[in-house]
Amino acid sequence: MNLLNIIFLLEFSVIKPAFGFMFWATVVFLIFWLFVGKLAFKPIVRALNQRADDIQTSLDAAKTAREQMSQLKAENEKIMAEARDEKMKIIKEAKEAANLIINESKEKAKEEANRIMVNSKNDIENAKKAALVDIKNQVGVMALDIAEKVMRKDLASSQQDYVKRLVDEIKMN
Amino acid sequence: MYKVFKNSLFVAIFSVTRLFAQQHAAEMGANAGQDTLAHSVNIPSGAHSAAEEVHGAGPAVMDANHAEHAAGGHEEAEFKADEAAFHHISDLNVYSIGPWNLPLPCMLYAPNKGWSLFSSSKFGIDNAHHGSGHKAIDGYVLNHGKVMRVKDPNFPQTEVEVGHFTTREEVIDEKGTKKDVSYVEYNGAEYALEHQSTADGGLFGGGITNFYDFSITKNVAGMFLILALLSWLFLSMAKKYKSAPGTAPTGIQKLIEPLIMFIKEEVAIPFIGAKHERFMPLLLSLFFLILALNLFGQIPFFGGTNVTGNLGFTVVLAIIVTLVVNFNGNKHYWQHIFNMPGIPGWVKFLITPIEVLSIFIKPLTLSLRLFANITAGHIVILVFISLIFMFGKSGANPGAAWGASVASVLLALFISAIELLVAFIQAYVFTLLTASYIGAATEEHHAHEAEH
Amino acid sequence: MTGSIAAIGMGLAAIGAGIGVGNIGGKAFEAIARQPEAVGDIRANMILTAALVEGAALIAILMAFLVK
Q: Which of A15, A57, B107, B195 is 20–30 Å from B411 (CA)?
């Protein structure tokens, strides 16, 4: 069968564009394009673009916020570190001051103690001297007393030892 | 759970396809038992010379020769797969849902009669006879669901009862071109019928005849149905975007939004570039209308509207696309066509006609591609279904018919699955090519790779 | 015997387009395998080129219909 016969004989109507059908096809497509396209597709595409922009803006904002956050964190850390340094410094200074005060007081106390010791030594020395003077006076007096007693009781040679013992007793005192 | 769903889906598809086959079995059985589609192989000679058929167009007396043909038709009722397939993809003036033929409004214009507006139910549609009417109104008759007009102007231009329809192969011109000519019987005589006027200018056997059919045919009804459906869908979607802007998509938005984004990101922006915003409504309209009509045409039982598989529809789309492309063409585009820069003068004499021709070849291939793909798919499915009747010899061999039906249903199911893919691909390709043509026409900087 | 020279032409057009589209598809898959990240661009251009080849075949088939 000839190819042309397929068209001419078997009424292959779909390849023959009918005027009426083409007219209605034009009407339908123009309605769809101009009416639905304008009232539906334009707003939908605009809304989708809007949403894409929104999402992009939100992402950018989140990124900026994250950057700012990390910046703030770094600043905070810096401040913290500074505060820590300051604290250490203050503590160090306080310690130094305390040490100074303690050392000063120690010095003072030492000096005082030394002074007191010197004074007491002097006092002791003085007292000793006074005591020695007193003893010498006493010894003199006693010697005189002893001499007096010896004299009264007749001085015997045997009594010399006794005198000697008496003198020794005085020394031991 | 998923497996159960998948299995039940398969069973559902299978049973629908099976039913589809059975429906066609009923239709085609009725068809084959009828004399109307039977071709008499012999070319009528003598009284029916070519000259008489073309120019005479008078009422031919039903002679013995014709009677013999008619009778012969009754006996040698042979099933023809190509005829059945071509009938099922063609546009009709009745809407077939299942076994019923719903009437549609007829708006017919004949230059010698004026407008005739009536419902196709006035023809007295006979469901058992595949949508042929038994009445003639203003010279119009319904032959197998299609409005035709009696050639003879002396035929009664009112409502009259008519008899059988007959189709015969005849020589229509001096070159020996053969053509099927349909006849209707009235008052014991046969009157030749004419198809509606078509815009192919006789190239494909059509041309201007004695009437124009502006009826709401089944394809037009299907188009309006899809138009209403898509309008409702997209307008309600747009309302949702307006009423709740910036919210996550819900419901049908989830299905449609990726498609819109796909057209925008994969088609419009790469091919048109910065100016794509202006052409988005056109591209989306083309994509969704073609896609919806492709898918709608694949629903069995539901009229079998074959809109995108009709050259009329694709030609209209291609013409609109061409107008948009050429009205938006900038200086570079026209310079590219008429005075291509960078080539010697004598080559321009060769290039320019080709470029000018390409303005018309682009829409031609655009429309033919969509038409050919969809039509081929429909015909392949219908021919596979027809295998049942070819093996079953139109009911004479039921065992072979049952055997063939298993194979043909499986094959038809397979092709249907491929056709689903083709429906998407062709809608995508049409949109993509439109975008590339628009992109080439609106491109600011001259680029040589834009040439097609 | 049925058929005509035009039918042979139609078949030849289909063969040519088949070879062309097959080559396009094959090369596109090779390209995708080499550069999976460019799949969008490759697919779009593949379909565009295939459509152009198919267009030539369609015109040939149309001519086969029209020229006796």
A: A15
pLDDT over 90 (residue B180): no
B235 shares a domain with B150: no
Give the total number of structural domains in chain B.
2
Q: Which residue of B has its CA nearest to A22?
A: B312
C1 is a domain residue: no
Model confidence pLDDT, tens digit, residues B151-166: 888 888 888 888 888 8
Contacts C54 to B, Cβ<8 Å: 365, 369
B181 & B272 share domain: no
pLDDT at B23 over 60: no
Across the interface, which of C2, C10, C65 has its CB nearest the CB of A7?
C65
**Contact assignment for C10 to A3 by CB distance below 8 Å:** yes
Tokens 């088609």 appear where? B267
Residue B107, domain extent: 101-216
Angle of the B81-89 helix axis to the B2-32 helix axis, nearest 10: 110
User: Could you tell me if residue B23 is inside a domain?
Assistant: no
Cα angle B131, B195, A2; round to 5:
100
Who wins on pLDDT, C19 or B189? C19
Contact list in C for residue B369 (CB cut-off 8 A) is 51, 54-55, 58
Closest in A16, A24, A32 to B285, CB measured: A32
| Reported pTM | 0.73
Tell me the shortest Cα–Cα distance from A33 to chain C, in angstroms: 24
Q: Do B368 and C41 touch (CB under 8 A)?
A: no
Domain boundary among the residues B196, B216, B236 is at B216
Structural domain ending residue among the three candidates B161, B185, B216: B216
> Are B377 and B391 members of one domain?
yes
Q: Which residues of C touch B270 (CB under 8 A)?
A: 40-41, 44
Strand B105-110 with B165-171, pairing: unpaired
* C14 lies in some domain: yes
Same-domain check for residues B265 and B407: yes
Q: What is the pLDDT of residues C29-39, one digit of tens each?
A: 999 999 998 88
> Which residue among B203, B364, B432 sits closest to C48, beta carbon to beta carbon?
B432
For residue B248, is it within any domain? yes
Co-location of B314 and B414 in the same domain: yes
For residues B185 and B249, state if they share a domain: no
Q: Is residue B138 part of a domain?
A: yes
pLDDT digits (tens, 9 = 90+) for B68-127: 333 333 333 566 777 777 777 888 888 877 777 788 888 999 888 888 888 888 888 766
List the subunits that have 3+ CB pairs under 8 angstroms with A: B, C
Write out chain A residues lying below 8 Å of B214, CB-based: 19-20, 23-24
**Residue in A17, A26, A33 closest to B198 by CB:** A17
Q: Is B267 on the interface with C (CB under 8 A)?
A: yes
B235 and B190 in a single domain? The answer is no
More confident residue, B223 or B387: B223
